[in-house]
Records
---
Amino acid sequence: MKLRTRLLLTLGLTLVLLWGVAAAWLMQDLHREVEKTLDHRLAQSARMVAGLMEQLPPDTWTTARRNFSIPATQGLACQVIAPGGKVIARTHVELDQLLSSDRPGYAYRDMDGATWRVFTLRRSGLTITTADRLDERNRLLRDVITVAAVPFVVALLGSLVAIWLGVLRGLRPLARLQEGLRRRNPEDLAPLPVQGLPGELHPLIQAFNDLLARIRRTIEREQRFTDDAAHELRTPLTGIKTHLQVARRLEGDAVQQALSQAELGVGRLGSTLDQLLMLARVEGRAGFGAETASSLAEVMALALADCGGAPERFELPATWPSVRLMLPRELAVTAMRNLIVNALTHGPGNRPVVLEASCSDQHRITVTVRDAGSGPPQEALAHLAERFWRAGKQQGSGLGLAIVAAIAQRAGGELSFATPAQGGFEARLILPVE
């Protein structure tokens, strides 16, 4: 169901229901007040007749030879009975039975298929009875209700029309937004403007703009990945092709040497592809199995085993802190392995690589990897985590530290580099722990 239809039905039905309840309540009160007013008028008529009769001499109703005549009114009857029980005045002779009453007060009586409201008053020995027909009362009540209902119905219809127009006007910004999105170029990822839109739509537009920004960053990252892959893979592929062409023209040991070089190029190409795919998975927020915590000691043991270095090449702490890293084990092992491999590659072979770990607070741990090499220049530290940036003429892919930086960013950690005063190069990886 459309939002407009839902709003119209909800507001319209609610308004009709509330106005209906108010109308029923009003009609009930109106009926009661009309009945009370007419009863009061009936009693006032009886008191008025009694007051007129009291103005006559006391012996009037004993010496009178005929009844007094009271002009008849349609739907209204009256009768006066003297203290001796003699009827001295009446409006309708045929209503003698209806107007004869011994009990004072109000009563309902039926006669000739019509219901009458009767009031009897006793004062100064006189019995005055007045009565009016209920159908006359009902006609008067219908007239009153009609007069009151016409403005009520007009106001209800006007309110429904106002709600309809208000909902249409209120949802017009949504219609404009829908039309703007429909006409939008599929390649246009610019943020949607919020000017001219109601404040209630601003959070929705902001969330949509955030989504567009994430999509734009994803596309830019994929485009950068494609460009980087095309650029970095072109060189090893060219080398492999060259060595194979050379092997085709040579004979003997030269063929084996060319094939060996081609094989080394294939290995470097495979390593670069693995690094590119890992970087794409990390930056693309791909899943890595169960996203559970992993033990630091287990991660370091696996990373050292993957590096393949001799035990004497490392200087390790006696025990690793008993903490669990808040990131998948595969990512943690990859980050530690890349740091260690970087230290082994750039550090001198006769000096060990120092590994340390310390808890800076109860939520984070700092893992330090230090080698005794000369290290890059101070101005080059800011470029170490960039893609395909290499210090010197090393044969690496230039993606190892970029992958570590991406893993740290994904886990909410931090990667930093420093050249200590005593020499060497130091990489610090800060990761959250349980």
---
Amino acid sequence: MIYYLRKVGLPVRRLTIFFLIDIWRMALLLVLLSIQSLAIAGPLLENHSNVKSVQYDLSFTLPLLNDLSLVHQDEGMQRREVAPPYRVEKEYLERTKKVQLAKNQGVLSLLVDSGVDRAEAYKIIQALSEHVNVSILPVGKEFNLTIDTTGKLNKLTLVVGFAESLELVRHGDNYRANQFESPVDARKYYVKGEISGSLYQSGKESGLSNSVLTKLNEIFSYSVDFQRQIRAGDQFSVFYDTLFNSQTEKEKLNRILFAELILSGEKISLYRFSTEGPQGVDYYYPDGQGSRGFLMRTPLENARLSSYFGRRKHPVLGYTRVHKGLDFGAPLGTPILAAGDGIIERASYFGSFGNYIRIRHGSGIKTIYAHLKGYAKGISKGGRVKQGQVIGYLGATGRVQGRHLHYEIHKNGTAVDPLRLDLPISKGLVGDSLNQFSQQVQKIQDELIKYAQQNQFDS
């Protein structure tokens, strides 16, 4: 070998040497392993030579565990059965998951996509339909599902209200519904501030939610022209309570108890009061006079008045003509509200007016809403609407330059200026109702003083 290595070249010589070294290492490793095996096996063979071989059932290694007994015998002990580490029956294997309704997805599709057998999904839909309208559940609605390996739903949980949950539990081939109500806490807030720009913007900066601001706009919409009366430096205050769900940590507006605007030094105060008559819950001035008018002054929220009633140069046609209503500018899709109770005479496309609604209110009064993007659900000719109900959405259909609401009021067949029309307001409180209201006003005032003292600011 040495003679051979001297004759070959250096590269081959190196490869040969490395190869011999690897063979030597492998041989040494085998020897060491053999010695170690003998060292371990020796004592075992000496001390446990009387242990007999036992046949073990290895079925516990399968994915689904079956019954298994391991037979074990120790020296000096009787033969005994040893239970497997755990036992799982196939029918009880289940998984829990949270899923949400996607856009253009129905509840049936959601269940099937989640692994529920289609036949079972139909049963679930039938059981759910007895408690909720599954066809109008919104996108993003969350379901908690517990499904077993056979594709059967064992339990479904769904939040159906602010503090209400519905649970479907499988019992044999049927489903049983249980309804639960989460505990809620009442919380009260008093917020006041100065208006700069708009009531909506100033209210948001003061921490008011959209729901509070929407309600404020509604209760003052009969007595305040938000486009012309609001000025920088005016003041607002609102006393309201909410419901708080401690489990979900969600909060929603319950009631506005008192609201006040000070516009150019003039104070407008409204108090919430409930009567047993047809008026129900409403807002009243301190003397008991009702604040609700025959029509709302503005049929949409947070809008600006962009064009008045009267003669003007038409922005599209280019010539001067009478503008028979008011134009309100607002973001595309802003909800349009019915100015008063009434019956819909027309709800369809109408020439240059685009998407158009006309409502008959009684006493010879009709209102018109034009250039809508679309109509609210259920709005059609002959239908009845309530004051403040959403009837459509602001758009730019018909002959227009940009998005806006064109709003008209007709009295006895003639268009009139909505800003100059005097309309009757609701009747005031009398007798026992007035006495109860006066007590309610005093109670609210006492609560305001107490709240202000606790929170260290002026009421």
